[in-house]
Every structure is written in structure tokens, then in C-alpha cells.
Design a protein that fits this description.
This protein has 242 residues and is an alpha/beta fold. Helix content is 32%, strand content 23%. The chain has eight helices and eleven strands. The protein has helices at residues 10-26, 39-48, 56-67, 84-89, 138-151, 154-157, 177-186, 216-220, and strands at 3-7, 35-36, 81-82, 96-97, 101-108, 115-127, 163-168, 189-197, 205-207, 211-212, 223-225. The strands form two sheets. Strands 1, 2, 5, 6, 7, 8, 9, 10 and 11 form a nine-stranded mixed beta sheet that branches. The chain has a two-stranded antiparallel ribbon with strand order 3-4. Helix 5 (138-151) runs parallel beside helix 7 (177-186). It is globular.
Length: 242
């Protein structure tokens, strides 16, 4: 369930990251035959499965965390992470953020050096929205809070690169330039993936490969990131109460 990074030669980093980024941007869906799933379509799918309209976002989150990493579902996160930036911007109304999923970052010293693991340094955040760009101010500066918390994460403290992966409905075609700029300033990687519908299936969705929005953070650290996605096919679902 870890997210990997490794050291590499500079030219190797530049070539590999560029190839990874361009491939992800050119094919948001896992397959060209898939249809990008906008929020309205997610609502229709949820309704056909008996999921309440108020639960669509949660059902999409469950699907995304269960399928983005084939064979290794991401556990739902309930841990709070402090953000002084969000606290300041909201006049002490909100002091923390709670990302949907959290993973450790594993750093591999290439080619045969020791492996380092940094807890709570990769955030996954799932949004089923009908539009928007997720600027830093979104939802009482929640997005700013994510970046700020990652900027104080164990990975960042050790000089590594924490990351946030946004998984959204297809209405969100890009992430705000202001969010990306803030992440570059804090040395945090920003990734973005969307869900797509598989034609001819019974309401099955699949996440495409995530697109890296600020490769410069990896260039500066001579680091090669692990690609994220595509996921495996799945459906919207609600978890059974515990």
C-alpha cells in the first residue's frame, strides 16, 4: 500500500517524468473506449444502484480508494492533520484536514541503497463535483490545508517529496494554477486522476492514470516517482456500517 520514489540520474529523471506526465495527460481514461464520468452521470449510476443522492460523493470515494491501486485498496482515513495555514485563513475555525486516504512514502536509494519509509506523507482526496478547479481556498481552505500539512510531513522534513493525489469526477478538467503554485512552493507533488465509465458494462467505472501537475518538484530533487494508476474496474458502493 506504499507510494514509491527513488533516486535516479538527472537525465533519467527528466526523460522518465516527461514520458509519464505526457502519457497521463494524453489518456485520462484507462482505455480510449471509456467515457469520462461527469458528476451528473455518477448521480444516474448511483440512483440505478439504489444509492441516495446525498451519498454519491461517499460512494465515489469508496470506489476510488478500493480500485486506484490494483490489489492494494487504500484504507479510509479518519486521522486529522494539523495545518497552521488553514487555521490562520479561517480565523481558527478549522485547524486540521482529514484526507480520504493516507499512505506512507517509501524512498528507494537507487540502485542498491537503503530503503526509507515516511509515514503519513501521501494524501488521496476524492471529489465528485459538477465543476471547479480546487483552488487553495476551496471548502474553507481545505486544499491549502492538505498542502500545508504535507509540507510538514515526515517525508518533507527528511528532504523527500510528499504528494497529494486528487481523484475527481470528469467535470474537474484541471487543478487550479494557484494550488499547483502553492504545492511547488512547499515542495509537494500534485497528481490528478478521473473516473471513466466502461461502455457495455453494468455501471462499471475505472480510474485512469494520474497526471502529474508539477514535475519540477521531482526534477529539483533528482527523484523519479512511481506512476499512479490506472485502477481496476469497479462500481460505486457504500460500506456496511460497523
Amino acid at each position: 500500500m506504499n507510494y514509491f520514489q527513488k533516486t535516479a540520474l538527472f537525465m533519467g529523471v527528466a526523460t522518465a517524468i516527461n514520458g509519464l506526465t505526457f502519457a497521463a495527460q494524453a489518456q485520462f481514461c484507462a482505455d480510449p473506449s471509456h467515457t469520462a464520468a461527469i458528476k451528473a452521470r455518477l448521480d444516474q449510476i448511483a440512483d440505478s444502484q439504489g444509492i441516495d443522492m446525498g451519498d454519491v460523493g461517499k460512494a465515489y470515494e469508496n470506489f476510488a480508494l478500493a480500485t486506484i491501486r490494483p490489489g492494494t485498496p487504500i484504507p479510509e482515513n479518519t486521522q486529522r492533520f494539523f495545518s497552521s495555514a488553514r487555521q490562520t485563513k479561517t480565523n481558527d475555525k478549522y485547524r486540521n484536514v482529514v484526507p480520504d486516504g493516507v499512505l506512507p512514502l517509501v524512498f528507494v536509494n537507487f540502485p542498491a541503497g537503503p530503503t526509507e519509509t515516511y509515514a503519513n506523507s501521501v494524501f488521496y482526496e476524492v471529489k465528485a463535483l459538477s465543476g471547479g478547479l480546487l483552488p487553495p481556498s476551496y471548502s474553507d481552505y481545505q486544499i491549502l490545508g492538505f498542502i500545508d500539512a504535507l509540507g510538514d510531513s515526515p517525508a518533507k522534513t527528511a528532504g523527500r517529496i510528499p504528494a497529494i493525489i486528487f481523484i475527481t469526477s470528469a467535470d474537474i478538467k484541471q487543478i487550479s494554477n494557484a494550488t499547483v503554485a502553492e504545492a511547488i512552493f512547499r515542495g509537494v507533488a500534485v497528481w490528478h486522476a478521473i473516473g471513466c465509465e466502461i461502455p457495455g458494462s453494468f455501471n462499471q467505472l475505472q480510474l485512469g492514470a494520474a497526471s502529474l501537475k508539477n514535475p519540477v518538484v521531482y526534477f529539483l530533487q533528482l527523484t523519479l516517482p512511481e506512476g499512479i494508476g490506472p485502477g481496476i474496474p469497479g462500481r460505486l458502493f457504500m460500506r456496511n456500517p460497523t
